[in-house]
Amino acid sequence: MREIDLKELKFNPMTLIGKEWMLISAGNEEKFNTMTAQWGHLGAIWNGDMPASVVYIRPQRYTNEFVNSEKYYTLSFFDEEYKKDLMYLGTHSGRDEDKLSKTSLTPVFGYDSVYFKEAKLVFVCRKVYKGQLHEMNFIDQKILDKNYPERDFHYVYIGEIVKALVKED
């Protein structure tokens, strides 16, 4: 993979995250985990001069332990041919099994985190904020009832995008 200037990127974030999905990963060669997500944001924050990602992770997800404890996390995006792998990683827990071994993905360790060789695009993010959604802040009760019947509110992480990597042609 090669590093690319963020200003050179051209994609639709609604499609990239909402339709193609992503892997949120954190950890190191000794221990790491990854999860599939289709919620999130990419953009700029704090006076518009910090490129940022926003990811949401439920407290019970194993990946939350890693993102919470590490300084960096990555977002990896893939071509359609890896959708089955992302589906598996999103429906099985790394706490219960070596779920990555059931996929065709290869972890790469670098930039103080982990990402995947097969990714078409990777964002390396330095964690700058952590919060949690709260029931009292929901204005639309239908969203609350549909997405949080157990009231297991997502943690929200904002990360400064410090590197963007693209697959070599």
Describe the structure.
The protein has 4 helices and 10 strands, in the order βαββββαβαβββαβ. By secondary structure, it is of the alpha+beta class. Strands 1, 2, 3, 4, 5, 6, 9 and 10 form an 8-stranded antiparallel β-sheet that branches. The termini are close together. The model has no long low-confidence stretch (mean pLDDT 96).
Instruction: Give the overall shape, derived from the CA principal axes.
Output: globular
Distance between the termini: 9 Å
Count every beta strand, where a strand is a DSSP E run of 2 or more residues. 10
- Reading the helices and strands in chain order gives EHEEEEHEHEEEHE
Quick summary:
The protein has helices at residues 13-18, 62-69, 83-91, 141-147, and strands at 2-4, 22-27, 32-37, 41-45, 50-57, 72-77, 107-110, 113-116, 121-132, 155-166. By secondary structure, it is α+β, with helices and mostly antiparallel strands.
Secondary structure layout plus pairing:
Layout: E1 2-4, H1 13-18, E2 22-27, E3 32-37, E4 41-45, E5 50-57, H2 62-69, E6 72-77, H3 83-91, E7 107-110, E8 113-116, E9 121-132, H4 141-147, E10 155-166
Give short descriptive properties of this protein.
alpha+beta, 39% strand, 169 residues, 4 helices, two-stranded antiparallel sheet
